[in-house]
Amino acid sequence: MQLTHSTAELVDRLAGTPRHRRAVVMTMGALHEGHLSLVRRARAEVGADGLVLGTIFVNPLQFGDPADLARYPRTLDADLGKLASAGTDLVYAPDLPEMYPAPMTVTIDPGSLGSELEGVHRPGHFAGMLTVVAKLLIRTAAGVAIFGAKDYQQLVLIRAMVADLDLDVRIVGAPIVRDPDGLALSSRNRFLDPGQRDRALGLSRALTAAQAAGAAGAPAPAVQAVAEDVLAAYRVPVDYLELRDPHLLGPVTERGEAQLLVAAAFGSTRLIDNARVTFL
Ligand code: AMP
Protein backbone atom coordinates (compact mmCIF):
# COMPACT_ATOMS: atom_id res chain seq x y z
CA MET A 1 0.00 0.00 0.00
CA GLN A 2 1.25 3.45 -0.88
CA LEU A 3 0.70 6.63 1.12
CA THR A 4 0.79 10.17 -0.16
CA HIS A 5 0.05 13.53 1.42
CA SER A 6 0.50 15.36 -1.87
CA THR A 7 -2.10 15.99 -4.56
CA ALA A 8 0.50 16.11 -7.33
CA GLU A 9 1.78 12.71 -6.26
CA LEU A 10 -1.80 11.39 -6.03
CA VAL A 11 -2.46 12.41 -9.62
CA ASP A 12 0.81 10.71 -10.69
CA ARG A 13 -0.04 7.47 -8.97
CA LEU A 14 -3.55 7.37 -10.37
CA ALA A 15 -2.40 7.98 -13.93
CA GLY A 16 -2.00 4.32 -14.91
CA THR A 17 -5.52 3.31 -13.88
CA PRO A 18 -8.54 4.36 -15.95
CA ARG A 19 -11.31 6.18 -14.12
CA HIS A 20 -13.81 3.30 -14.19
CA ARG A 21 -11.31 1.06 -12.40
CA ARG A 22 -10.70 3.47 -9.50
CA ALA A 23 -12.82 3.22 -6.36
CA VAL A 24 -12.55 5.70 -3.52
CA VAL A 25 -13.52 5.45 0.15
CA MET A 26 -13.46 8.79 1.96
CA THR A 27 -12.91 8.87 5.71
CA MET A 28 -11.89 11.12 8.55
CA GLY A 29 -9.68 8.38 10.02
CA ALA A 30 -10.19 6.72 13.43
CA LEU A 31 -11.10 3.70 11.39
CA HIS A 32 -13.22 0.75 12.45
CA GLU A 33 -14.86 -2.24 10.76
CA GLY A 34 -17.54 0.02 9.23
CA HIS A 35 -14.91 1.87 7.22
CA LEU A 36 -13.13 -1.35 6.30
CA SER A 37 -16.36 -2.82 4.96
CA LEU A 38 -16.43 0.10 2.52
CA VAL A 39 -12.87 -0.71 1.42
CA ARG A 40 -13.87 -4.33 0.76
CA ARG A 41 -16.91 -3.15 -1.17
CA ALA A 42 -14.64 -0.85 -3.19
CA ARG A 43 -12.48 -3.85 -4.10
CA ALA A 44 -15.54 -5.81 -5.15
CA GLU A 45 -16.59 -2.90 -7.39
CA VAL A 46 -13.29 -2.58 -9.29
CA GLY A 47 -11.90 -6.12 -9.08
CA ALA A 48 -8.41 -7.39 -8.39
CA ASP A 49 -6.85 -5.24 -11.13
CA GLY A 50 -8.60 -2.07 -10.07
CA LEU A 51 -7.27 0.58 -7.72
CA VAL A 52 -8.78 1.02 -4.26
CA LEU A 53 -8.07 4.44 -2.87
CA GLY A 54 -8.69 5.51 0.72
CA THR A 55 -8.67 9.13 1.80
CA ILE A 56 -8.13 10.41 5.33
CA PHE A 57 -8.88 14.02 6.12
CA VAL A 58 -10.53 15.54 9.16
CA ASN A 59 -12.46 18.32 7.48
CA PRO A 60 -12.75 21.47 9.63
CA LEU A 61 -15.35 22.88 7.23
CA GLN A 62 -17.94 20.36 8.40
CA PHE A 63 -17.43 20.87 12.15
CA GLY A 64 -19.53 23.61 13.66
CA ASP A 65 -18.19 23.08 17.16
CA PRO A 66 -14.43 23.72 17.57
CA ALA A 67 -14.35 21.44 20.64
CA ASP A 68 -15.77 18.57 18.58
CA LEU A 69 -13.08 19.13 15.94
CA ALA A 70 -10.29 19.37 18.52
CA ARG A 71 -11.19 16.09 20.17
CA TYR A 72 -11.89 14.13 16.97
CA PRO A 73 -9.57 11.11 17.24
CA ARG A 74 -6.46 11.12 15.03
CA THR A 75 -4.91 7.68 14.73
CA LEU A 76 -3.03 7.72 11.41
CA ASP A 77 -0.59 4.85 12.07
CA ALA A 78 -3.31 2.47 13.20
CA ASP A 79 -5.53 3.60 10.32
CA LEU A 80 -2.82 2.83 7.76
CA GLY A 81 -2.39 -0.69 9.16
CA LYS A 82 -6.13 -1.31 8.93
CA LEU A 83 -6.43 0.08 5.42
CA ALA A 84 -3.51 -2.06 4.27
CA SER A 85 -4.96 -5.24 5.70
CA ALA A 86 -8.37 -4.50 4.15
CA GLY A 87 -6.73 -4.33 0.72
CA THR A 88 -6.32 -0.60 0.05
CA ASP A 89 -3.80 0.20 -2.71
CA LEU A 90 -3.24 3.89 -2.10
CA VAL A 91 -4.00 6.29 0.75
CA TYR A 92 -4.32 10.02 0.20
CA ALA A 93 -4.03 11.95 3.46
CA PRO A 94 -3.61 15.65 2.67
CA ASP A 95 -2.90 18.14 5.43
CA LEU A 96 -4.99 21.28 5.85
CA PRO A 97 -3.03 23.59 3.48
CA GLU A 98 -2.95 20.84 0.85
CA MET A 99 -6.72 20.49 0.99
CA TYR A 100 -7.47 24.22 1.30
CA PRO A 101 -4.52 26.17 -0.14
CA ALA A 102 -6.58 29.36 0.01
CA PRO A 103 -9.60 30.43 2.06
CA MET A 104 -12.75 29.02 0.47
CA THR A 105 -15.15 31.51 -1.07
CA VAL A 106 -17.30 29.05 -3.03
CA THR A 107 -18.89 26.06 -1.33
CA ILE A 108 -21.62 23.56 -2.19
CA ASP A 109 -25.11 24.49 -1.01
CA PRO A 110 -27.00 21.40 0.17
CA GLY A 111 -30.41 23.03 -0.33
CA SER A 112 -33.22 22.81 2.19
CA LEU A 113 -32.45 19.23 3.29
CA GLY A 114 -29.14 20.61 4.55
CA SER A 115 -30.89 22.42 7.37
CA GLU A 116 -33.19 19.56 8.38
CA LEU A 117 -32.56 16.53 10.62
CA GLU A 118 -28.79 16.62 11.34
CA GLY A 119 -28.64 20.07 9.80
CA VAL A 120 -30.79 21.52 12.58
CA HIS A 121 -28.18 20.55 15.14
CA ARG A 122 -25.12 21.09 12.95
CA PRO A 123 -25.54 24.29 10.90
CA GLY A 124 -23.12 24.36 7.96
CA HIS A 125 -22.19 20.71 8.40
CA PHE A 126 -23.57 19.47 5.08
CA ALA A 127 -22.19 22.38 3.06
CA GLY A 128 -18.75 21.62 4.50
CA MET A 129 -19.14 17.90 3.91
CA LEU A 130 -20.34 18.26 0.30
CA THR A 131 -17.57 20.72 -0.46
CA VAL A 132 -14.80 18.37 0.65
CA VAL A 133 -16.47 15.38 -1.02
CA ALA A 134 -16.65 17.35 -4.29
CA LYS A 135 -12.98 18.30 -3.99
CA LEU A 136 -11.99 14.70 -3.28
CA LEU A 137 -14.11 13.41 -6.18
CA ILE A 138 -12.41 15.88 -8.50
CA ARG A 139 -8.90 15.15 -7.21
CA THR A 140 -9.27 11.39 -7.28
CA ALA A 141 -11.41 11.22 -10.44
CA ALA A 142 -12.70 7.86 -9.27
CA GLY A 143 -15.39 6.05 -11.24
CA VAL A 144 -17.05 4.77 -8.08
CA ALA A 145 -17.22 6.10 -4.53
CA ILE A 146 -18.48 4.10 -1.56
CA PHE A 147 -20.31 5.70 1.36
CA GLY A 148 -21.93 4.12 4.41
CA ALA A 149 -25.67 4.16 5.04
CA LYS A 150 -24.77 4.97 8.65
CA ASP A 151 -24.70 8.63 7.56
CA TYR A 152 -27.94 8.30 5.65
CA GLN A 153 -28.67 12.00 5.14
CA GLN A 154 -25.09 12.48 3.96
CA LEU A 155 -25.53 9.67 1.42
CA VAL A 156 -28.78 11.18 0.12
CA LEU A 157 -27.15 14.62 -0.25
CA ILE A 158 -24.06 13.21 -2.00
CA ARG A 159 -26.31 11.38 -4.47
CA ALA A 160 -28.21 14.63 -5.07
CA MET A 161 -25.00 16.60 -5.61
CA VAL A 162 -23.67 14.03 -8.09
CA ALA A 163 -26.95 14.03 -10.03
CA ASP A 164 -27.48 17.81 -9.95
CA LEU A 165 -23.91 18.71 -10.92
CA ASP A 166 -23.50 15.90 -13.50
CA LEU A 167 -20.48 14.50 -11.70
CA ASP A 168 -19.03 11.49 -13.48
CA VAL A 169 -19.03 9.03 -10.59
CA ARG A 170 -21.22 6.17 -9.42
CA ILE A 171 -22.20 6.39 -5.76
CA VAL A 172 -22.57 3.11 -3.88
CA GLY A 173 -24.29 3.02 -0.48
CA ALA A 174 -23.05 0.26 1.84
CA PRO A 175 -24.89 -1.23 4.84
CA ILE A 176 -24.31 -0.15 8.43
CA VAL A 177 -21.82 -2.29 10.37
CA ARG A 178 -22.77 -2.84 14.02
CA ASP A 179 -21.28 -4.25 17.18
CA PRO A 180 -22.73 -7.68 18.00
CA ASP A 181 -25.23 -6.10 20.40
CA GLY A 182 -26.52 -3.75 17.69
CA LEU A 183 -24.74 -0.45 18.39
CA ALA A 184 -23.73 1.10 15.05
CA LEU A 185 -19.96 1.43 14.84
CA SER A 186 -18.80 5.03 15.09
CA SER A 187 -15.48 6.73 15.71
CA ARG A 188 -17.28 8.56 18.51
CA ASN A 189 -18.33 5.42 20.42
CA ARG A 190 -14.98 5.50 22.24
CA PHE A 191 -16.15 8.60 24.12
CA LEU A 192 -19.12 6.80 25.72
CA ASP A 193 -18.78 5.77 29.37
CA PRO A 194 -20.25 2.34 30.22
CA GLY A 195 -23.57 3.82 31.36
CA GLN A 196 -23.90 5.91 28.21
CA ARG A 197 -23.04 2.93 26.06
CA ASP A 198 -25.80 0.88 27.69
CA ARG A 199 -28.30 3.64 27.00
CA ALA A 200 -27.01 4.08 23.44
CA LEU A 201 -28.16 0.54 22.73
CA GLY A 202 -31.66 1.99 22.81
CA LEU A 203 -31.01 3.56 19.39
CA SER A 204 -30.65 0.31 17.46
CA ARG A 205 -33.24 -1.44 19.63
CA ALA A 206 -35.77 1.28 18.82
CA LEU A 207 -35.08 0.93 15.10
CA THR A 208 -35.38 -2.84 15.21
CA ALA A 209 -38.67 -2.63 17.11
CA ALA A 210 -39.98 -0.12 14.58
CA GLN A 211 -39.01 -2.36 11.68
CA ALA A 212 -40.85 -5.28 13.28
CA ALA A 213 -43.93 -3.14 13.91
CA GLY A 214 -43.95 -1.94 10.28
CA ALA A 215 -43.57 -5.49 9.00
CA ALA A 216 -46.45 -6.58 11.23
CA GLY A 217 -48.74 -4.04 9.61
CA ALA A 218 -48.62 -1.10 12.03
CA PRO A 219 -49.25 2.31 10.42
CA ALA A 220 -46.67 5.11 10.57
CA PRO A 221 -47.82 6.79 13.83
CA ALA A 222 -47.82 3.44 15.63
CA VAL A 223 -44.35 2.62 14.30
CA GLN A 224 -43.10 5.97 15.53
CA ALA A 225 -44.69 5.33 18.94
CA VAL A 226 -43.04 1.92 19.23
CA ALA A 227 -39.63 3.48 18.61
CA GLU A 228 -40.36 6.30 21.08
CA ASP A 229 -41.26 3.80 23.79
CA VAL A 230 -38.00 1.90 23.39
CA LEU A 231 -35.97 5.13 23.43
CA ALA A 232 -37.75 6.20 26.60
CA ALA A 233 -37.16 2.81 28.24
CA TYR A 234 -33.42 3.17 27.58
CA ARG A 235 -33.49 6.81 28.72
CA VAL A 236 -31.99 7.94 25.42
CA PRO A 237 -31.60 11.75 25.22
CA VAL A 238 -33.24 12.00 21.80
CA ASP A 239 -32.50 14.93 19.47
CA TYR A 240 -34.90 13.74 16.80
CA LEU A 241 -36.74 10.65 15.66
CA GLU A 242 -38.21 11.02 12.18
CA LEU A 243 -39.90 8.69 9.77
CA ARG A 244 -39.45 9.92 6.21
CA ASP A 245 -39.63 8.69 2.66
CA PRO A 246 -36.30 7.14 1.53
CA HIS A 247 -35.24 10.34 -0.29
CA LEU A 248 -35.86 12.33 2.91
CA LEU A 249 -38.07 14.71 0.97
CA GLY A 250 -41.57 14.23 2.22
CA PRO A 251 -43.66 12.53 4.85
CA VAL A 252 -43.89 8.78 4.77
CA THR A 253 -46.62 7.04 2.88
CA GLU A 254 -48.57 4.37 4.65
CA ARG A 255 -47.37 1.63 2.31
CA GLY A 256 -43.96 0.81 0.95
CA GLU A 257 -40.57 1.97 2.12
CA ALA A 258 -39.60 4.58 4.67
CA GLN A 259 -36.45 5.55 6.53
CA LEU A 260 -36.45 6.00 10.29
CA LEU A 261 -33.69 8.33 11.49
CA VAL A 262 -32.66 8.96 15.05
CA ALA A 263 -30.04 11.09 16.80
CA ALA A 264 -29.17 11.48 20.46
CA ALA A 265 -26.58 13.33 22.53
CA PHE A 266 -24.93 11.37 25.33
CA GLY A 267 -23.15 14.16 27.14
CA SER A 268 -21.00 15.76 24.46
CA THR A 269 -21.12 12.66 22.24
CA ARG A 270 -23.71 12.78 19.48
CA LEU A 271 -24.73 9.51 17.88
CA ILE A 272 -26.92 8.85 14.85
CA ASP A 273 -28.52 5.72 13.49
CA ASN A 274 -31.19 4.82 10.94
CA ALA A 275 -33.00 1.90 9.39
CA ARG A 276 -35.31 1.07 6.53
CA VAL A 277 -38.89 0.40 7.59
CA THR A 278 -41.16 -1.46 5.21
CA PHE A 279 -44.88 -0.95 5.67
CA LEU A 280 -47.06 -3.84 4.66
P1 AMP B 1 -16.40 8.96 8.89
O1 AMP B 1 -14.93 8.89 8.70
O2 AMP B 1 -16.82 8.27 10.15
O3 AMP B 1 -16.99 10.30 8.69
O4 AMP B 1 -17.06 8.05 7.77
C1 AMP B 1 -16.45 7.71 6.57
C2 AMP B 1 -17.36 6.77 5.82
O5 AMP B 1 -17.57 5.60 6.59
C3 AMP B 1 -18.74 7.35 5.56
O6 AMP B 1 -19.18 6.94 4.27
C4 AMP B 1 -19.58 6.72 6.64
O7 AMP B 1 -20.95 6.61 6.32
C5 AMP B 1 -18.94 5.35 6.72
N1 AMP B 1 -19.24 4.69 8.00
C6 AMP B 1 -19.03 5.18 9.26
N2 AMP B 1 -19.50 4.32 10.18
C7 AMP B 1 -20.02 3.26 9.51
C8 AMP B 1 -20.66 2.05 9.90
N3 AMP B 1 -20.86 1.73 11.19
N4 AMP B 1 -21.07 1.20 8.92
C9 AMP B 1 -20.88 1.51 7.60
N5 AMP B 1 -20.27 2.63 7.18
C10 AMP B 1 -19.86 3.50 8.11
How would you characterize this protein structure?
With 280 residues, the protein is of the alpha/beta class. 40% of the residues lie in helices and 20% in strands. The chain is built from 10 helices and 9 strands. The chain has helices at 7-14, 33-46, 66-71, 76-85, 96-99, 118-121, 125-140, 152-164, 194-215, 220-233; strands spanning 2-4, 22-27, 51-56, 90-92, 144-148, 170-174, 238-244, 256-266, 269-279. The strands form 2 sheets. Strands 1-4-3-2-5-6 form a 6-stranded parallel sheet, with helices on both faces. A 3-stranded antiparallel sheet has the order 7-8-9, covered by helices on one side. β2 (22-27), α2 (33-46) and β3 form a beta-alpha-beta unit. The chain is globular, with a radius of gyration of 19 Å. The chain starts with a strand and ends with a strand. Bound molecules: adenosine monophosphate. Adenosine monophosphate is lined by residues 27-28, 34-35, 37-38, 147-148, 150-151, 174, 176-177, 184-187.
Low-confidence stretches: none
Helix content: 25-40%
- Contiguous helical run count: 10
Task: Tell me the strand order in the biggest sheet.
Answer: 1-4-3-2-5-6
Shape: globular
Main sheet record: 6 strands, parallel
Approximate strand percentage: 15-25%
Total number of strands? 9
Mean pLDDT: 96
Q: How large is the radius of gyration? A: 19 Å
Bound small molecules, deduplicated: adenosine monophosphate
What is the end-to-end distance?
47 Å
The ordered string of helix (H) and strand (E) elements is EHEHEHHEHHHEHEHHEEE
Structural class: alpha/beta
